Amino acid sequence: MNQLDTLKIFQRVAELASFSGAARQLGLPNASVSLAVQQLEQMLGTRLLQRTTRRVQLTADGEAFYRRSQELLDEFESLRGMFRAGGQPLSGKLRVDMSSAMAREVVLPALPGFLAQHPQLEIELSASDRRVDLVAEGFDCVLRTGTLDDSSLVARPIGHLVQINCASAAYLKRHGTPRTLEDLAQHQLVHYRQVLGGRSPGWEWFDGRQTHTLSMAGSVTVNGTETYYAACQAGLGLIQLPLVGAQKRKMLDGGKLVEVLPQYRPAPMPVTILYASRRHVPARLAEFMDWLHALIFPLTQEGGLTR
After folding, report:
1. Element (H, E) at 74
2. Spatial CA neighbour of 244 closest among 294, 170, 305, 290
3. Per-residue pLDDT reduced to its tens digit, 237-277
4. pTM score, two decimals?
5. How far apart, in whole angstroms, are the C-alpha atoms of residue 224 and residue 241?
6. How far is CA 135 from its chain centroid?
7. Other CB atoms within 10 Å distance of the CB of residue 129
8. 199: closest CA among 189, 207, 185?
9. Alpha-carbon span 277 to 265, nearest angstrom
């Protein structure tokens, strides 16, 4: 095991605060990970990690060494990519996360073209509606829709997704079509919560300056995009969704879903690429993020999709 491998092991243990977690992600035996860190500490003559039965945490020296070793590894990745313009292909593995809807409707259909250009790359794609911990779970980047709350990560904005209000034709036939905000008192909303246990704030609309919220009744709360759309199609209530999602699934074709109250649309939803706060970005990650940005930007309000 060379010194760079040892540094990578130490980095992953520090990020996950776990020897066993680092071993699982790196595909190494627990003993090999523990030995690598011990040898590194012996070589440096200082303790980098404080180990207890419950947790692993960086010492003061470990914090300083972590930052410097991170810079060194990033610099090494940058040096490796210096001559790729001369024909050396991108290689290695990327771990990315995004919503299931974005993966299914936008990214996966286009991914074969990207991999055809970079056949030595491997993509591990996590598609879920929960918000993963980029650092702790070892992701290179995440594609996030909605308001950001990760101040420690680097944010690369792509644009905003236009949102619309929809209901199924069957629902509107039974309950009528709302024409005003006052009409919503007679309607049901399918509530969406990433973590079940409560309802959404309610109906949201944007007046050009700020978002307003109106509490609404609703018999069903879901925590996934697929069930959210399915609940609406089943006639369980109104939903608010990105226009691109409705278009990609052809939901508005043939009256499967009908847009309502277009004058009271929600605020456009920001879509952002997040990655770890590092001075240098590996060439494979930079190339993938550039591709992702170019793929999604035309689907945003800034890219011209407003309907």
Report:
1. helix 60-80
2. 305
3. 999 999 998 888 888 887 789 999 999 999 999 999 999 86
4. 0.72
5. 12
6. 12
7. 17
8. 189
9. 35
